[in-house]
């Protein structure tokens, strides 16, 4: 292990971080630590100052600097991580990616945080990367553990073929099994279980979920898909505006600290708790990561012609509890909700402008008709792709549709669904696509009608009314026991999407065009083929 020293985020630390601002690096999807340094973000001092100016929620951070870096030559530039749509890039608030951080330290069963959160998989995992790890290790990589990597904790794994079967949900969809007991005193009862792996029961349901990215945490308002690490709090700064009675939530920082310990004890099966110092180091590390698509195969650099894509711009994006809230407007500025949430690519809107119209016909008696206007040069393939991304951004912000049968969607006083909205109604945090106050929704992804044969199905019955529902994941209801919370999951951050397919909490859509098709059919938006292509191009550029 290389020697390190810790410096508070003062001017000295900022100067050292600035000297490292050109370095790059990360992890591979094998979860092994890279030997290269990595960085490319703002210095801790500048990031903290920017957060103070914008109101962005941030943590006090420390900077870990290799002794060799003090006086060493400037490190290499950050390394883009290729994906099917181009490449993504990660920058760090610390100035580089500290591979000596306990985030990368194997614990318990050999797993580290990086086992399920690797840089070249968008700080999550991907089926292709997992398949490579499986073949290289013959199924022995630490990610392949019965506790939650297998379809059932009792699956046979003695032979390689048995392992392929046992870990099929991880290998094909990048899904981790979350085992949860039916909540005590719930408003519903488990009526039937259809588990293709023969394990799930009321004692422990098998819920298959994608690992959420451990980057871009500066833009979240709840921790975990079901919000279980963001409990209610009696008081605090994260309180819903005008809520009666008061409704407050624990800080994101406290939720991440708790989640780090829960992961080490659960996923890594460690015999003892993380130390407070390791907890703090892990959370400071992951809270300082900003990851986004940086280049597009079709459009080239996502900064070209003044566009605002890529992680450097993302790292400077303002975020705070209640920014641009759909219901109450902006908590700090009191401005009403602005549906123009995404504003990165508007400068590209006219790059594929149509040719100039022909001149008007000559007037009677006019001897010499006016000359034809000069025709613009044909748009390049890159400009056509950029214009498509810009059109997709405009669709995301402004294309209206009826929001129907979405449990948890905010209701305006006196108004009932359907309500008119757009993608920006739920993904309302500027240029990040998260929601700035906790919002858990049931959009139908877990409905029984969309169940695939590899997914367990649960039939729940309302104790009061006798109503039944078929669901593959009860979501937030597993915590609250409330019927109205069945199927609810958090609104995730939308940046760096191309790096981390498949999509939705259950990996049900293999690509972003599938995500667009799902929403188009689910809400009967009526997108044309061109609009679907444009919206997909925009999501790929995030």
From TrEMBL:
Keyword Heme on entry: yes
Extent of Low complexity compositional bias: 29-48
Keywords: Heme, Iron, Metal-binding, Signal
UniProt-annotated stretches for the region Disordered: 27-48, 353-383
InterPro entries linked to this entry: Cyt_c-like_dom, Cyt_c-like_dom_sf, Cytochrome_c_Peroxidase/MauG
Segment forming the signal sequence: 1-21
Keyword Iron: yes
MF (Gene Ontology): cytochrome-c peroxidase activity; electron transfer activity; heme binding; metal ion binding
SUPFAM superfamilies: Cytochrome c
Ranges of compositional bias, category Pro residues: 354-376
PANTHER family linked: CYTOCHROME C PEROXIDASE-RELATED
Protein known as: Cytochrome C
Organism expressing this protein natively: Pseudoduganella aquatica
Organism ancestry: Bacteria, Pseudomonadati, Pseudomonadota, Betaproteobacteria, Burkholderiales
């Amino acid at each position: 292990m290389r020697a390190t020293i810790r410096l508070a985020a003062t001017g000295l630390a900022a100067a050292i971080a600035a000297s490292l601002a050109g370095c790059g690096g990360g992890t591979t999807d094998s979860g092994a630590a890279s030997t290269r340094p990595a960085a490319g973000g703002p210095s801790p001092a500048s990031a903290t100052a920017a957060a103070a100016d914008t109101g962005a929620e941030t943590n006090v951070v420390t900077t870990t600097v290799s002794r060799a870096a003090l006086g060493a030559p400037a490190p290499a530039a950050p390394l883009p991580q290729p994906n099917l749509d181009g490449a993504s890039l990660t920058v760090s608030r610390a100035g580089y990616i500290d591979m000596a951080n306990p985030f990368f330290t194997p614990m318990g069963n050999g797993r580290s945080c990086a086992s399920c959160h690797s840089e070249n998989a968008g700080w999550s995992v991907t089926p292709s990367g997992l398949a490579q790890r499986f073949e290289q290790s013959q199924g022995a990589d630490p990610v392949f553990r019965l506790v939650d990597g297998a379809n059932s904790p009792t699956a046979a794994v003695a032979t390689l073929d048995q392992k392929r079967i046992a870990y099929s949900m991880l290998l094909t969809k990048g899904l981790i099994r979350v085992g949860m007991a039916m909540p005590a005193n719930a408003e519903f009862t488990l009526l039937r279980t259809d588990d293709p792996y023969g394990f799930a029961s009321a004692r422990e349901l098998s819920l298959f979920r994608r690992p959420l990215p451990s980057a871009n945490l500066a833009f979240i308002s709840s921790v975990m898909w079901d919000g279980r690490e963001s409990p209610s709090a009696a008081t605090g700064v994260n309180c819903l505006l005008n809520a009666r009675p008061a409704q407050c939530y624990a800080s994101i920082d406290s939720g991440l600290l708790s989640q780090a310990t829960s992961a080490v004890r659960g996923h890594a099966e460690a015999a003892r708790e993380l130390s407070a110092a390791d907890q703090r180091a892990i959370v400071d590390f992951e809270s300082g990561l900003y990851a986004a698509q940086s280049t597009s195969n079709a459009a080239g650099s996502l900064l070209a012609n003044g566009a605002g894509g890529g992680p450097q711009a993302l790292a400077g994006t303002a975020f705070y509890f209640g920014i641009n809230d759909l219901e109450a407007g902006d908590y700090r500025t009191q401005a009403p909700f602005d549906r123009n949430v995404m504003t990165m690519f508007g400068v590209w809107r006219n790059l594929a402008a149509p040719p100039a119209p022909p001149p008007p016909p000559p007037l009677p008696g006019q001897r010499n008709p006016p000359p034809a206007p000069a025709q613009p040069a044909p748009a390049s393939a890159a400009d056509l792709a950029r214009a498509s991304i810009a059109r997709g951004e405009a669709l995301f912000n402004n294309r209206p549709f009826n929001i129907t049968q979405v449990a948890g969607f905010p209701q305006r006083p006196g108004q009932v669904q359907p309500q008119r909205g757009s993608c920006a109604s739920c993904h309302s945090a500027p240029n990040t696509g998260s929601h700035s106050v906790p919002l858990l929704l049931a959009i139908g992804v877990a409905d029984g009608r969309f169940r695939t044969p590899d997914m367990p199905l649960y039939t729940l019955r309302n104790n009061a009314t006798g109503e039944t529902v078929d669901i593959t994941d009860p979501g937030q209801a597993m915590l609250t026991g409330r019927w109205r919370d069945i199927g609810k999951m958090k609104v995730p951050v939308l940046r760096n999407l191309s790096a981390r397919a498949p999509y939705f909490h259950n990996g049900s859509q293999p690509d972003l065009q599938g995500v667009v098709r799902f929403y188009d059919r689910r809400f009967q938006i009526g997108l044309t083929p061109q609009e679907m292509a444009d919206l997909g191009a925009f999501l790929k550029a995030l």
